[in-house]
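User: I've been trying to design a sequence by hand for this structure and keep getting stuck. Would you show me what you'd pick, starting by listing the structure so we're on the same page?

Assistant: Good idea, let's start from the same input. This is the structure you sent:
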């Protein structure tokens, strides 16, 4: 890619190729409220279908979350109760230590990095790693994306200037 606009188009095309994922995952969280790692069974389909199972020591489900983007259901094995309601970010946060609406959670789990709407862009290249360095700016908010070539997948996103989360993707196939 020779321009930031061209790279953004290539990223969007690469991300659109993955519409579902199923398998085991590790979720690492480092937030002010919680730190830790949990093993998950994950089944996600674009745009907002999410099925997550937090697994215990013997791979027994400790909690199960399902959402179709409109409705939310969660089983908590510790209290042996099933909760249901609208698929709000707050309800999704009952299962995960991050509060995200189902479409954004599904996008992240499909390896899609949400991007700020930018007024300015800057494109660089790290010859050592072979990665594009794409900076998006909108006012005081800045997002730095590390994009691996030749697959044009975002492997790291760091947002500054507003309250947001950072993401890092590993072992993308």
């Amino acid at each position: 890619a020779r321009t930031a606009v061209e790279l953004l188009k290539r990223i969007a095309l690469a991300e659109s190729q993955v519409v579902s994922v199923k398998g085991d995952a590790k979720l690492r969280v480092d937030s002010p409220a919680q730190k830790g790692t949990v093993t998950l069974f994950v089944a996600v389909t674009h745009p907002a279908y999410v099925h997550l199972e937090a697994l215990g020591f013997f791979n027994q489900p400790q909690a199960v979350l399902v959402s179709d983007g409109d409705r939310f259901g969660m089983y908590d094995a510790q209290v042996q109760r099933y909760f249901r309601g609208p698929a709000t970010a707050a309800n999704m946060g009952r299962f995960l230590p991050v509060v995200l609406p189902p479409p954004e959670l599904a996008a992240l789990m499909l390896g899609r990095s949400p991007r700020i709407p930018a007024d300015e862009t800057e494109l660089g290249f790290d010859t050592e790693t072979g990665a594009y360095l794409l900076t998006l700016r909108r006012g005081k908010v800045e997002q730095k994306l590390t994009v691996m070539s030749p697959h044009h997948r975002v492997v790291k996103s760091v947002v500054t200037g507003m309250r947001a989360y950072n993401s890092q993707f590993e072992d993308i196939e």
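That's my pick for every position. To get oriented when you compare it with your attempt: The longest strand covers residues 20-30. The mean pLDDT is 91.
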